[in-house]
Amino acid sequence: MLYLLGVLCAVLVVFNGILLIKIAGMRRAADEICAEIDTRLGKDTNVGIDITISDDKMRRLAAEIDRQMRRLRKEHIRYLQGDRELKEAVTNISHDLRTPLTAICGYMELLEQEELPEKVQRYLSVVQERIDTLKQLTEELFRYSLVVSANQYEERESVDLNRALEESIAAYYGALKEAGITPRILIPKKKVTRQLNKAALSRILANVIGNAVKYSNGDLEITLLENGHIVFKNHTKEMNQVLAERLFDRFYTVETGKNATGLGLSIAKALTEQMGGEIRASYENECLVIEIDCPPIISTQEKESKLT
After folding, report:
1. Alpha carbons 108 and 129: distance in angstroms, whole number
2. Element spanning 14, H or E
3. ∠ at Cα 225 (221, 229), nearest 5°?
4. How confident is the model at residue 300 (pLDDT cuts 50, 70, 90)?
5. What share of the chain is helix, strand, coil (3-state, %, to 5)?
6. What is the percentage of the chain residues whose pLDDT exceeds 70?
7. pLDDT tens figures, 241-291
């Protein structure tokens, strides 16, 4: 009896040993697959995933992941090519629109010099307003194509967010006053700095404040937190949650009878994301809320740890 128990224990020990070796091999294979995926995502290579373990199921898993990654890479290349072609088309179209618009403006100036009935003058005034709107949208379209395709905003420097906000608000003082808006500004005394492109940040803030001028019902609250979080809040009845969520969509416009968002907020989103930040919009209690998260400053030790 004792002999049988001894044999059984020996068998269990061997079985457990084999099982542990099997588990250790599968864990090693999983680590190898993770490392291979990370390497291939960071490099443009067609080399397949290879693992050292001979287990059929793990090798089949690695082969399937490799197949899906090849498919994903092809789709990514197609996306990049299509996106590049779209940007080029947008740039060309916005360029081509300028010529007929310039001619139309010239003829409008000639018509304004003629003696025309009052009714015709009213019609021409409406036409001129639409032409001015079309010119503005064309310029925004052209600027957007430059923003998303050029690398003019790659340089970074230490930017004082407090000062940048104050300068942007001051630049819009006339427009805010004309719209009857007295902004409520909440900026901390402590200096908040981030590594950003100063020109890009200026455009982002200008586009967001300009949007508030268009749609505010008479108020605007701007808050800067010490963690680099900026909040723009204003009452507006010309908005809802669905429209707020689409404000940053490329080429999406919201007609309100007198204004359109154009591409200003799309440009703001593109520039914010280029700098590693985040911008989002929501609609709460009849208020449009636009929030900007500036990327935190990464220390030298954090950079080295990410590289390793």
Report:
1. 11
2. helix 2-42
3. 85
4. very low
5. 60, 10, 25
6. 83
7. 888 888 887 655 555 434 444 577 888 898 898 899 999 999 988 899 999
SS3 for 42-110 is: HCCCCCCCCCCCCCHHHHHHHHHHHHHHHHHHHHHHHHHHHHHHHHHHHHHHHHHHHHHHHHHHHHHHH
Question: Does residue 5 surpass a pLDDT of 60?
Answer: yes
User: In Å, how far from its chain's centre is CA 6?
Assistant: 68
CA 239, distance to chain mean position in Å, is 21
Residue pair 261/209 in contact (Cβ under 8 Å)? The answer is no
Does the pLDDT value for residue 302 go beyond 60? no
What does pTM read for this prediction? 0.58
Whose CA is closest to 276, among 211, 194, 207?
194
Quote the CA–CA distance of 190 and 5 in Å, as a whole number.
Answer: 75
Which amino acid, one-letter code, is at 161?
L
**Position 148, amino acid:** V
| Site of tokens 């100063």 | 198
What type of residue is 245? E
What's the rounded Cα separation, in Å, for the pair 12 and 85? 65
Closest alpha carbon to 247 in 221, 196, 212: 212
Q: How far apart are CA 136 and CA 129, in angstroms?
A: 11
> How many residues are present in the chain?
308
Residue with tokens 């009845």: 237
The pLDDT tens digits of the residues spanning 34-53 come to 777 777 766 666 666 777 77
